[in-house]
Amino acid sequence: MSTIQQNLQDVRNRIAAAAQNCARAPEQVALLAVSKTKPVAAIEEAIAAGQRAFGENYVQEGVDKIRHFAESPQNGELVWHFIGPLQSNKSRLVAEHFAWCHTVDRLRIAQRLSDQRPAGMPPLNVLIQINISDEQSKSGIALAELPALAEAIAALPNLALRGLMAIPAPEADYQRQLAVFSRMNDAFLALRQRYPQADTLSMGMTDDMAAAIAAGSTLVRIGTAIFGARDYSQA
Ligand SMILES: *Cc1c(COP(=O)(O)O)cnc(C)c1O
After folding, report:
1. CA 222–ligand 1 middle distance (angstroms)
2. Which of 9, 51, 52, 103 would bridge with 46, disulfide CB 3.0–4.6 Å?
3. Which residue has its alpha carbon closest to ligand 1 atom 7?
4. How confident is the model at residue 69 (pLDDT cuts 50, 70, 90)?
5. Which residues pair with 81 in a beta bridge?
6. Does ligand 1 come within 6 angstroms of the Cβ of 224?
């Protein structure tokens, strides 16, 4: 078994254990493999091990990989998520190539994504990014802004509002991780009351996936635990 295969199996086991610990079914937590900075050979190994959903942070790198795998026999099953910060001038590439965008945090970007989504493609699945703990970060909206942005996005024709995403500030303590993720879950449950099609709460990374799952995450975004540490020096 390759390292990536083994790592994927370990991550799936960790997800299942975390779910069972809080009486959730493991199938309620999907695994997004975050392949940013990793070569296509690493993604190929993950595909061979049964992984189908991949997350990319950099638009051009992601589009290059999507184009590469358009030739692969599994292409019809692969689902590509854009999870990085999105600038207006890159929105067209996301609208044209990805199935999901997790980082919508202003109406202007949402409008561009909807306008630029090609006819004939299904609506782009979008998550609204919430700045849940890190006041320093420029990404994500405050919870107070969520109702208005959700309403505006839900009205856009070529987007499907699927839920919320957060990247909390790094925190080593499990109980504190849980407290932050629980605030996200409260907001998610309130959103679902109004938009029943919003079925996705994207939270949890390599170092905080157990707390995220305990708090209600439906999609964990895991890079390091699958592909190993990232090397940014080549970028
Ligand atoms: C890089 C990244 C991840 C994966 O982080 P790991 O700690 O390597 O699991 C998840 N989500 C986002 C938005 C990221 O940028």
Report:
1. 6
2. 51
3. 206
4. very high
5. 55, 100
6. yes
Query: Looking at the domain assignment, is residue 229 inside a domain?
Result: no
Name the residue with the closest Cα to ligand 1, atom 12: 83
Distance from the CA of 231 to the center of ligand 1, in angstroms? Answer: 13
Examine residue 234 and state whether it is found in any structural domain, yes or no: no
Neighbours of 14 (CB within 10 A): 18
Phi, psi of 210 (to 5 degrees): -65, -45
Q: Please tell me the distance between residue 221's alpha carbon and the centre of ligand 1 in angstroms.
A: 6
Domain contains 91: yes
Output the pTM of the full model: 0.96
Instruction: List the one residue out of 4, 30, 1 whose CA is nearest residue 209.
Output: 30
- Tell me what the mean pLDDT of segment 192-205 comes to: 98
Which CATH number characterizes residue 138's domain?
3.20.20.10
Q: pLDDT by residue (tens digit) across 144-194?
A: 999 999 999 999 999 999 999 999 999 999 999 999 999 999 999 999 999
Q: Using the atom order of ligand 1, give the atom closest to the CA of residue 167.
A: 13
pLDDT attached to residue 99: 98
Give the distance (Å) from ligand 1 centre to CA of residue 204.
8
Return the higher-pLDDT residue of 234 and 58.
Answer: 58
Query: What are the residues whose beta carbons fall under 8 Å from the beta carbon of 232, sequence distance 6 or more?
Result: 37
Whole-angstrom Cα distance, residue 82 to residue 93?
10
- Ligand 1 contacts CB of residue 223 (under 6 A): yes
* Residue 207 is assigned to a structural domain of this protein: yes
> Containing domain of residue 126, as a range?
4-222
Domain count, the chain: 1
pLDDT-derived band of residue 28, with 50, 70 and 90 as boundaries? very high
